Fold:
Amino acid sequence: RPAATPGAEPDQPEVAQKTGTLQEDSRGSGARNGSVQQLPQTIIIGVRKGGTRALLEMLSLHPGVAAAENEVHFFDWEEHYSQGLGWYLSQMPFSSPRQLTVEKTPAYFTSPKVPERVHSMNPAVRLLLILRDPSERVLSDYTQVLYNHVQKRKPYPAIEQFLLRGGRLNADYKALNRSLYHEHLRRWLHFFPLRRIHIVDGDRLIRDPFPEIQKVERFLKLSPQINASNFYFNKTKGFYCLRDSGRDRCLHESKGRAHPHVDPKLLNKLHEYFHEPNKKFFELVGRTFDWH
Ligand SMILES: Nc1ncnc2c1ncn2[C@@H]1O[C@H](COP(=O)(O)OS(=O)(=O)O)[C@@H](OP(=O)(O)O)[C@H]1O
Structure:
């Protein structure tokens, strides 16, 4: 694991524990009710900081979905992949055979070896890709790594030091590369047709999650069971939170952080940098997004 890009998520669970999660119920009574572990029929492949946790938690509101709690990093970490599909299976939640199993590992989208590996597990797997404004994603990515350093009481340079080199935008900054969505998606399209990849608009998921989640239900051929009443806007958090069987919960405090202030001129450079790549991406997917 490269030390410079620590795992995006902290290890601790990010949402308040649900009482009686599907996993816990079935784990406790697995021997009696015939619950099983299944390889995921659907995977949230990224993008890092796109809203992958929110998407997973929102999808888990559906009784037909069983989600792996932690990021599994099977296809992108050699020490996991070398242990084979048996290991991968052992990481999955217990579920009823009729439920869909889903896992999310945001690093999959940008890891070169992953598309072929996922394809060799199951060419019919349904992929969920949640994207957000590429410039905003860069700021979020920087903020994540900044917090990782702050937690360890380590210093971390200001964002300008990464974004600029000799007065020009530094194309070698990894966070910029991760936002070149067309390059990464192209690799996936060598192995999967576009119809197997559903792209969730991460900016819309923030502003108004329910319509985006309805589209995901349809893509996964799930019966429409998630309702508008499962979401409420929490003014304190500034984001939508979830309401499930009368219980309210927001995502962990590491989700929805304030981003650093960036000089408008530099921000403009960033927007310009992504202009062409975004156009290429829109052509690739036959759809446009409301990005800068
Ligand atoms: N409902 C709700 N509540 C809180 N946060 C929300 C929500 N919906 C989407 N988001 C956005 O999710 C961003 C984090 O993305 P990921 O979960 O993919 O991050 S990670 O790569 O797994 O670390 C996170 O990015 P930051 O705002 O930069 O913290 C949020 O903007």
Summary: The pocket of PPS is lined by residues 8-9, 48-54, 106, 140, 143-144, 205-206, 239-240, 251, 255-257 (CB under 6 Å). The longest strand covers residues 126-131. DSSP finds 13 helices and twelve strands in the chain. The radius of gyration is 19 Å.
